[in-house]
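Reopening this one. Same input as before:
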Amino acid sequence: TYTLKKGISGKDIGKRGTSIEDKDIPEALGIVPGAIFLICLIFCLVGYATSHPKKLLDVNSALLSICFMLFLGFTDDVLDWPWRYKLFLPSVASLPLLCCYEGSTSILVPIQLRFLLMQEGELTMLGRILCYIVTVDENANGAIVNLGLLYLVYMGMLAVFCTNAINIYAGINGLEAGQSYVIGCAILVHNLIEIGNNSANTENHLFSVMIMLSFVGVTLALLGHNWYPASVFVGDTFCYFAGMTFAVVGILGHFSKTVLLFFIPQIINFIYSTPQLFKFVPCPRHRLPKFNPETGLMGPSTFSCSKDEFRWLKKRPDDTEVANMTVINLCLQILGPMSERTLCIVLLTLQVICCVIGLLIRYKLANLFFDG
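Same output, byte for byte:
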């Protein structure tokens, strides 16, 4: 109601040609669950952090980073920031996390690749070259590489990726909140497994559980209003808030690589979208699926081109329309037209499957590549 009064609303492009195409829908409603989440985290600051004083700095830095991204997302919904700011500012928001990061900056090298760094107790040519940039642990026979400052750069880039990956994998009712809810549940499962196994990082996983329980709760409430047919739009506010929350638990919980395993659909969508994102291929402002009011089904949206252009993307050489390069449109190309609700269910099912695969990789396949 408040956003409608202030004119912060929009039309649902996926309902064109229907009786509700001109209905004003409140936008940027991610600010509501975001604010409630921050209130919950502040109460946690009073309870959890006072009994775990070592975590007080972590909770404060998490609050600062998430609050900054919530502010950025809301101003983006209102002012429509250019993309260059959307890529730069999340890295600034991650600085409080990186400043208080006290974990290791080393990575384990897969067993199958260690011969490239060391052989018979001596550094290889590649190993000696890498030592100018990073530190190869000779005592570990090349199994450990200390990235130092580069690891902090990687974590800063993780924050940028998480915030923008959800934002570009969106456009249909329920998808942004739905995928965030599934990823949040997957992170909780990972945390609980580690706590149950008495992991050395149990305290970090308890910290993550504290954050993710609040996040999953507010996201589920938002999903109820954003589900088809949506009565509210989550906006960039929620996408940035959700992405930074995942980055916070990944960085401060010391399981940033595991978090990426739960982003498999988002990673695929980013890689597949790269030609359009970097303007190698025309990129319309809106790449969400095209609604057919006659059938009530959604099909892949397209961009126009001449017969001689982008033949590598065309089904037929003479086509003058090419489908936009997103996983959402790709799904419609493979499975055929479907309703918006069904499409969202299919994509969320894919998210669940990928999160299960991520957990299997973490707990079953990882032993094939790393010791113990």
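So the earlier flakiness isn't reproducible anymore. For the record, The longest strand covers residues 106-108.
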